[in-house]
Amino acid sequence: MHRGRNLALIALVAALLCLLCLYLDGDAPDERATPSAETAPAYWMLYERDPSEFRSLTVTLASGESYRVRSDMVFQDGQLMGVQNTLGQPVVVDGRPDFALDTTGYQMMLLVAQHIPVTARYDALDLEACGLASPAARLEIAYDNGETLNLAIGNLTASGDSCYVSLSGDTSVYLAPYDLHQVMTRSLKEQHALPGPLNVDVDSAVQLAVDGPNVERIIATRYGGDRLLPWQVDTPLVHDGDTERIAAFIAGLCAVHAQAYETTVADAADLAAYGLDAPLRLIAAFSNGTIRDIHVGADAGGGMVYVRMDSTGDIYLLSRTQLDFAAEASLEGLLDRFVALVPITELSQLTVTCGQERYVLAQNWLSQEDTVAMGYTVNGAEVSREDFSACYSAVIGLQFDQASDETRENMPMASLQFTLRDGTRYQVDLYAYDAFYTLAVTDGGGRFLVRNTRVNAMIETLKEDTYAVQ
């Protein structure tokens, strides 16, 4: 039983009652009708029953739809001890134990089972005019002692702040808060809980993934620490991730909220009708263990799409505009544009080989704890920190325009060989591609098209500021 969650239920219902009372009004429904008393309290209860005696509530709507909820609460000596369902609800839908009711819905159902606040009583109203001849909803409330109450909900008043209600066995018409009409005239589908936005700190995300039958699987991890770029794409290649675009992807994923409930399927085979047997999956994991996993299925018409938002068989609708953020959820969209952004604080030596020429940039470190080198050399000659930085920036500043699937078997026209302070080695090979682009191939499996003008500018900077080793 969900005792901890549901011991607070009575307090929630009491709070809801207080909110309902704020909306009470004294609208005059009809000039021909007169209140039964000249003075009356602001509100009173049309009836009052012990919630421990509540058994079931049957709702029949004007559309002909009918459903029943039954109490699933456990009482001991008149005290609520908890509920018996895994959903943590005080009531469950008959025949649908997996149906997750909206919080507002089940709180109103529990309130109706106990009492209804009313603000006015009229003895001579036209039932047709106030919508009680053909009610918007009929409620049949059953109790363990065999008693049954029948409540009819009619139209809203002109102001919209109240609604007309009547009780079987009572010829009077009463005014109840509009919330009663608003909630209890919804269809059962509209009573279903709708997953909302995920309330987490976007910066607490530690991993993301994009996967599906028509997309290349992408997995990116936030490594943090002292990394210049905290995110790294690990699959299908290893490369730094674009921090800004990844943050936008995670923010968009967290903001997704269901707009309507469609249905609940019993098994995986039933998902095919909604395109959810092989969905596009958008996933983010957070440091507190929370996982956001949105399954995107087929088009549902009207700009809507079918989705799953949890591990249940519940299927929801949301507008495709909510998924605009996913347009950047491609390998090319999530990668950082620098071909090899190795921070200068991690570099021991860089060797650039271009044809018969070679450029060796090295830093002299006094200890592993230092963040600034003691000296700098280019091809063995000491240079200033500024000159060294200019040469190094020309190399690591290379940016690509797009990712590529191209491969090359011939010898590269140039190579960039990085040796880091911790001994790690990293290499980028540059191949002639066409009149506009050079193909850059990284150790991490990246294949990127870099404009020839950028590669030529790098080489010219090295030639101008260094003496090439033959």
What report would you give on this structure?
The longest helix is centred in the first third of the chain and has 14 residues, at 9-22. This protein has 8 helices and 30 strands. A hairpin with a 2-residue loop joins strand 22 (347-354) and strand 23. It is an alpha+beta fold. It has helices spanning 3-6, 9-22, 103-114, 178-184, 243-255, 331-334, 385-396, 452-465, and strands at residues 44-48, 54-61, 66-71, 73-76, 79-83, 91-93, 115-118, 120-122, 137-143, 148-156, 162-167, 173-177, 205-211, 218-222, 231-235, 239-240, 260-264, 280-286, 291-301, 304-308, 314-319, 347-354, 357-364, 375-378, 381-382, 402-403, 414-420, 425-432, 437-442, 447-451. The chain has a 9-stranded antiparallel sheet, with helices on one face. The protein has a 9-stranded antiparallel sheet with strand order 25-24-23-22-27-28-29-30-26. The protein is elongated and about 105 Å long. Helix 7 packs antiparallel against helix 8.
